[in-house]
Specification:
The protein is mainly alpha-helical and 325 residues long. It folds into two domains: 59 residues, no CATH class; 235 residues, Rhomboid-like fold, CATH 1.20.1540. It contains twelve helices and four strands. The strands form two sheets. It has a two-stranded antiparallel sheet. Helix 8 runs antiparallel to helix 11 and helix 8 runs parallel beside helix 12. The longest helix has 26 residues. The protein is globular, with a radius of gyration of 33 Å. The relative contact order is 0.10.
Length: 325
């Protein structure tokens, strides 16, 4: 049996393997004592430099690391892009407000908590439903409070689920300030459309604002479709198909306020396109894609938001004067 070399010999013999350049060969690797082949060493009994046939292969992790260094990783075009994202806060707060108003509706309606229980019209009007005669009479705040009321458990569950899915994504992309603006202005657009284009309406629900979030997401990917490449165009097609399918299905359901949905979708689409964040694309030293948000100035998107608010206020007073005439 061959004795293991001492520490000094180990350090002196840390040569590099001829089979795996760059990988140190452990000096403790020795051939068997009955090694029958000729050696280039002056002393045939010295096996501190064995031939390559006795070299232990390096670990798999080392080989994979060497392969990655030789071929830098480039992200595929169809992979999700590394976009700068914001922390989601407003979506959870709005969902909590909707849930609180649902509990208030249960109490105000007499405590009915069954899954199919429908709140009475009197209860909903008292809590802030969109009711045309009262809005015409000066209770304009109902155009906003309608977004936080729901008629029954199924209504709030469906709206809450859609709001959670769309809201989290859009707030992460736009940030809390822009996202809050889009939610309320698109919802207000849907309320004004419902009020102005119906002879008389009693409506509740956040679906106008939720369609606004869908429209804003479409506007965002429409604005970024060229920069986002295959991924962006594919996602945009899916969003358009989703919007079309929802409208077709809702047209088949009686009692659904599709004017509010359409108004919210248009409002969100315009605001999402105009107020979309802009990006700069660059490449890291290891050839990975880097995306940074360009616009730190809030004046531009705030100006678009104020312009849209002025437009829908003008539309509201046009409808109001028509109803008062």
């Amino acid at each position: 049996m061959t004795n293991e070399p001492d520490k000094e010999n180990k350090e002196a013999n840390q040569e590099y393997s001829p089979l795996y350049p760059g990988y140190p060969r452990p000096s403790s690797v020795q051939p068997p004592s009955n090694y029958p082949y000729p050696t280039s060493n002056p002393n045939p009994g010295d096996y501190t430099n064995p031939p390559p046939s006795f070299q232990e292969p390096p670990p798999r992790a080392w080989l994979e690391a060497q392969q990655r260094e030789r071929t830098p990783e480039v992200p595929p075009q169809e992979a999700p892009l590394p976009l700068p994202l914001h922390t989601v806060m407003v979506t959870y707060a709005l969902l909590a407000m909707i849930a609180i108003m649902y509990v208030v509706s249960i109490v105000a309606d007499g405590g009915g908590i069954s899954f199919s229980h429908q709140f009475s019209s009197e209860t909903l009007v008292k809590l802030g439903a969109l009711y045309s005669p009262l809005v015409t009479g000066g209770e304009w705040w109902r155009l906003v409070t309608v977004m936080f009321l729901h008629a029954n458990a199924i209504h709030i569950l469906l709206n809450g689920l859609n709001f959670y899915i769309l809201g989290k994504q859009l707030e992460a992309l736009f940030g809390p300030a822009r996202y809050t603006m889009i939610f309320f202005l698109s919802g207000l657009t849907g309320s004004i459309a419902s009020y102005g284009l119906h002879d008389q309406v009693l409506a509740v629900g956040a679906s106008g604002a939720i369609f606004g979030l869908l429209g804003a997401t479409i506007g965002y990917f429409l604005r970024q479709r060229d920069k986002f490449g295959v991924f962006g165009r594919s996602y945009l097609k899916n969003l358009l198909a989703t919007a079309a399918l929802n409208f077709v299905l809702l047209l088949l359901i009686p009692g659904v306020d599709n004017l509010a949905h359409g108004g919210g979708l248009v409002g969100g689409l315009v605001l999402g396109y105009l107020c979309s964040p802009l990006y700069d694309f660059s490449q890291t030293p290891n050839r990975r894609l880097r995306i940074t948000q360009r616009d730190n100035n809030n004046l531009l998107w705030l100006g678009f938001a104020l312009a849209w608010l002025a437009l829908i206020v003008v539309a509201f007073f046009f409808f109001l004067n028509a109803k008062l005439a």
